[in-house]
């Protein structure tokens, strides 16, 4: 690891990209920011390395030879929680949305600024490390939902929910502010920690979260759409605003 200290000091990153130039540039910037970095040139090598030693975060190119980034992300997520930031081609919106739907926490479009990527990695890592707050927080409840911010566990009817890092943070944010309306811009700032970004990221995460906590995701009653504004979390299950 680089001797430089930085926002990522102590974190281990796996960079997966078949372009050696991109991989080296990304690795150099991450190491200067204080991260320990390992590289993989294809999906199978990435899964092997992640299996041998679980990384703290994966920077994953979407377009890989053989096993593509989407399948690598699926397999990584099935093996256990690990934050994933995808690298995608500019203009390939459908692929980016699919990446978020299979569990990626964020994405950066190529060509990208290495500094921006470092900032996004540091942002995701900070939230990942917030799994043990200094002061215990009470369990949040809404109907059959229970969220414990201290242990970062969420359950529905006693069954633990498999939530990504962002999904958990989004649900916690909603449950701590019942009845309040939130724009997608506000959610991007408060949950993602960014003043800019593709707002479809928020839309996709809300859709994924609804699929895990709603009785009928097509007619959500907990995370309701507020037309012209964004979303509102209603602790009581009501049917007044379909989405």
UniProtKB/TrEMBL annotation:
This is Response regulator transcription factor. It comes from the Bacteria. It comes from Streptomyces tanashiensis. The modification 4-aspartylphosphate is found at residue 61. Residues 137-235 bind DNA. CDD domains: REC_OmpR, trans_reg_C. It holds the Pfam family Trans_reg_C. Residues 12-125 form the Response regulatory domain. Keywords: DNA-binding, Phosphoprotein, Transcription, Transcription regulation. Residues 137-235 form the OmpR/PhoB-type domain.
């Amino acid at each position: 690891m680089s001797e430089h200290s930085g926002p990522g000091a102590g974190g281990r990153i796996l960079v997966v990209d078949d372009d050696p130039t991109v991989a080296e540039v990304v690795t150099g910037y991450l190491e200067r920011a204080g991260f320990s970095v390992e590289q993989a040139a294809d999906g199978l090598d990435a899964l092997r390395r992640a299996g041998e030693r679980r990384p703290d975060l994966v920077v994953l190119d979407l377009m890989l030879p053989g096993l593509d980034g989407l399948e690598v992300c699926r397999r990584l997520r099935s093996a256990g929680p690990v934050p994933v930031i995808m690298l995608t081609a500019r203009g390939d919106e459908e692929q980016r949305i699919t990446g978020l739907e299979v569990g990626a926490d964020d994405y950066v479009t190529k060509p990208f600024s290495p500094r921006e990527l470092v900032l996004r990695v540091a942002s995701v890592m900070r939230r990942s490390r917030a799994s043990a707050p200094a002061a215990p927080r009470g369990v949040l409840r809404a109907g059959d939902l229970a969220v414990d911010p201290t242990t970062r566990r969420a359950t529905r009817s006693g069954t633990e929910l498999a939530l990504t890092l962002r999904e958990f943070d989004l649900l916690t944010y909603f449950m701590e502010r019942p009845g309040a309306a939130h724009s997608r811009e506000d959610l991007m700032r408060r949950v993602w920690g960014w003043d800019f970004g593709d707002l479809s990221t928020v839309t996709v995460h809300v859709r994924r979260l609804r699929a895990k906590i709603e009785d009928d995701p097509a007619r959500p009653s907990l995370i309701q759409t507020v037309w012209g504004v964004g979303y509102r979390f209603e602790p009581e299950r009501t049917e007044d605003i379909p989405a």
